[in-house]
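As a warm-up, study this chain.
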Amino acid sequence: MPKIRTSKTVAKRFKVTAGGKLMRRSVGLNHLMRRKTKSQKRALTKGSVLHSGDRQRIVRMLGGIS
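Now compare it with the structure written out below.
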């Protein structure tokens, strides 16, 4: 049986927390920033937790980690 390879593109985009949750980057920070308030932009800099429906697929791409 061959080794499970980690998808490097997925490894760059997702981080595993100490509790085992997967964090992703928030969307909406690339353009059209003038219409967003300062507090909206600050809130978007924090990552968000990945939904549970996507978790199994992403963990498989990470090589079964967590």
